[in-house]
Amino acid sequence: QVQLVESGGGLVQSGGSLRLSCAASGSIYRINVMGWYRQAPGKERELVATVTDAGNTDYAASVKGRFTISRDNDKKMVTLQMNSLEPEDPAVYYCNADIGVFAAGYAPPKKYWGQGTQVTVSS
């Protein structure tokens, strides 16, 4: 069984910073792309940022230059440093990872989701 556990959400003033973390656990033999998505009320879930196992990153245009994604492969963790938070950023932020699990053999990687963490920005 694989779990993605997020932490670090909360309330911050506009212009402030938050750092989200996500740790993967379980019988994992490989993690490919890791990323963060977010979903605001009444909106579809959208991609925020991704990072490959080689460290290549990609960002949504709305967060580029303000958010930084990084990962620690040894710790099976991905973090999202969010700076200059804006009123458009509040949402539930979800960790996502493409994970290969060992269970009576090497199962092909598939996507797993965390439970989500709330980010609120006050003006």
Total number of helical segments?
Answer: 0
Helix content, binned percent:
under 10%
Taking all Cα atoms into account, the compactness measure Rg is 14 Å
Q: Report the strand count.
A: 11
The 3D shape can be described as elongated
End-to-end C-alpha gap: 41 Å
- Give the structural class: mainly beta
Stretches where pLDDT is under 50 for at least 5 consecutive residues are: none
Kindly report the average pLDDT value: 96
Assembly state (oligomeric): single chain
Strand percentage lies at over 45%
The helix/strand order is: EEEEEEEEEEE
Topology readout:
Elements: E1 3-7, E2 10-13, E3 18-25, E4 28-39, E5 46-51, E6 57-59, E7 67-72, E8 77-82, E9 91-101, E10 110-113, E11 117-122
Parallel strand pairs: 2-11
Antiparallel strand pairs: 1-3, 3-8, 4-5, 4-9, 5-6, 7-8, 9-10, 9-11
Task: Describe, in plain words, how this protein is organized in 3D.
It is a single chain. The protein is mainly beta and 123 residues long. It has no helices and eleven strands. The strands form two sheets. Strands 2, 4, 5, 6, 9, 10 and 11 form a seven-stranded mixed β-sheet that branches. Strands 1-3-8-7 form a four-stranded antiparallel β-sheet, with no helix packed on it. A hairpin with a 5-residue loop joins strand 5 and strand 6.
